[in-house]
Write a structure and sequence with these properties.
The chain is about 45% helix and about 15% strand. With about 270 residues, it is of the alpha/beta class. It has a seven-stranded parallel beta sheet with strand order 3-2-1-4-5-6-7, with helices on both faces. Helix 1 (about 20-30) packs across helix 8 (about 220-230) and helix 4 (about 110-130) packs parallel to helix 5. The radius of gyration is 18 Å and the shape is globular. It binds NADP nicotinamide-adenine-dinucleotide phosphate.
């Protein structure tokens, strides 16, 4: 018996096997969860279907989260297939690539609108429709990044979208609390994925975080492990929280240069 035996949920945001959502899916599958998957567009279908099949999923449906009719349709399909849901994972973000480099003051109105719509409003849209499918309560999880809280060069408008996302987590947690639906976020350390590769200078910042974080870089399996906790019953009185799964990077006020020099010297040996 796993922690999630008898529990059902939908994962939004698997693009390929490197996706954070896939790390979460594998962890939940190991715990016995029944999983459904939603992907953004036709192009992804070929990649998501075999992954879904490998964890025994019989529900794979397309949904562009910026389209209300598509979201309604997805939840009608989910209701027909699952009846009720216990959890939902929102691992979706997007900003036009030209917004993810250069001066923040060059952010366009349209880039801002798209980033906030896809990366933040979509959580509200999904939570509203998941609510009636969670009559005995449930757990909703989204993914944030430290750029919500502190400036991360080139993350730009996505940092603003993640700040709005973290505030949205708190407002949804308050609103859905009486229905016993919890809403939390994991603020993940940098991981190489399709989305993160679109941020200018990502590789350098991955190396830097790896050197500065007390525990070094994280992997998608680490996010999966934290998701077992936040989506499962062990966290039943936790809501509106942002849990850092970043190897401790966010506690550092300045890099430990001695440690960094030692690590650099060791890598030369
Ligand atoms: P990923 O594999 O590229 O996943 C991003 C997902 O968002 C993709 O499946 C993408 O589909 C989907 N998406 C984009 N626009 C959508 C739309 N309109 N409708 C539905 N889905 C849409 O990258 P990831 O890094 O795992 O990202 C997952 C989450 O983790 C994101 O919220 C990201 O900001 C967050 N996060 C990532 C890191 C990191 O370093 N990787 C760190 C902290 C937080 P398409 O590919 O079709 O666009």
């Amino acid at each position: 018996m796993g922690l999630f035996t008898g529990k059902k949920g939908i994962i939004f945001g698997v693009a390929n096997k490197n996706s954070i959502a896939w790390g979460i899916s594998q962890a939940l599958h190991e715990e016995g969860a029944e999983l459904g998957f939603s992907y953004a567009g036709e192009v992804l279908k070929k990649r998501v279907e075999p992954l879904a099949e490998s964890v025994g999923s019989k529900f794979v449906a397309e949904c562009d989260v910026t389209n209300d009719e598509a979201v309604d349709h997805l939840f009608t399909q989910a209701s027909d297939h699952f009846g009720t849901l216990d959890f939902l994972v929102h691992a979706i973000a997007f900003a036009p690539s030209e917004e993810l480099s250069g001066r923040f003051s060059n952010t366009t109105r349209n880039g801002f609108r798209i980033a906030l719509d896809v990366s933040c409003y979509s959580l509200i849209a999904l939570a509203k429709r998941a609510m009636p499918l969670m009559p005995k309560g449930g757990s909703i999880l989204t993914l944030s990044y430290y750029g919500a809280e502190k400036v991360t060069p080139n993350y730009n408008v996505m940092g603003v979208a993640k700040a709005a996302l973290e505030a949205t987590v708190r407002y949804l947690a308050w609103d859905l609390g009486p229905e016993r639906i919890r809403v939390n976020a994991i603020s993940a350390g940098p991981i190489k994925t399709l989305a993160s590769s679109g941020v200018s200078g990502f590789r350098k910042s991955l190396n830097y975080v790896g050197a500065v974080a007390p525990l070094g870089n994280v992997g998608q399996e680490d996010i999966g492990d934290a998701a077992r906790f936040l989506l499962g019953d062990w966290s039943k009185q936790i809501t509106g929280e942002v849990l850092y799964v970043d190897g401790g990077y966010h506690i550092m006020g300045a890099p430990d240069t001695d440690r960094m020099e030692k690590a650099a010297a060791q890598s030369q040996e």
